[in-house]
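If you are new to this repository, start here. Below is one unmodified record pulled from the training split, so you can see the exact layout before writing a loader.
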Amino acid sequence: MTITLVDLRTQARQRADMENSRLVADAELNNYINNSIAELHDMLTDAYGSEYYVQSTSALPIVSGTDSYALPSDFYELKGVDIKLNGQDWINVKRYNFNERNRFSGFNVWDTTGLSNVRYRIVGGNIKFSPMPDQDAEYVLWYTPMVTKLVNDGDSLNDFNAYSDYIIVDAAIKMLQKEESDVTVFVLQKEALAKRIREKAKNRDP
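And here is the target side for that same chain:
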């Protein structure tokens, strides 16, 4: 099930009882809604064991002598890294801690036995492998992308189990705050919705 930007905007105005008010213009309300979507995105991203937004890249090349590669443009949070060498099976790669950044440089052989010593780390906008690759390989990133902003009225997002109510209430709070109205009841509603989402989202595959 999906919900569009225009539906979110309409329901937020209804919830705030501001259907006929233009104190908050549509463009401003769109910003409120996108910020609320980002909050919900973080809650669902943090739901342990429930990968709501995770996606993977296609197989990407690792070139001998090059240890750093750009992350996808929509990269937000890494979930895992796989490497394949010489047509062998894909293997999971572990991350090295920053204080271990030189520890694995001595394991300078990328082969079927040495691959278990390969490590990665996210550094700025790149993924960096250690030790330095000494032959070509492939890697795949499993990651959570950044939120895609809703811009046009018909733009939509997946509405997991009516979790969009969190977005609507949060946007209504922002509207009412600008109006300098009491938001106590809405804040309590938001807290209850956040509690429900955090408790249920992690049980997607119990």
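Two things worth knowing about this chain: The longest strand covers residues 75-84. The radius of gyration is 22 Å.
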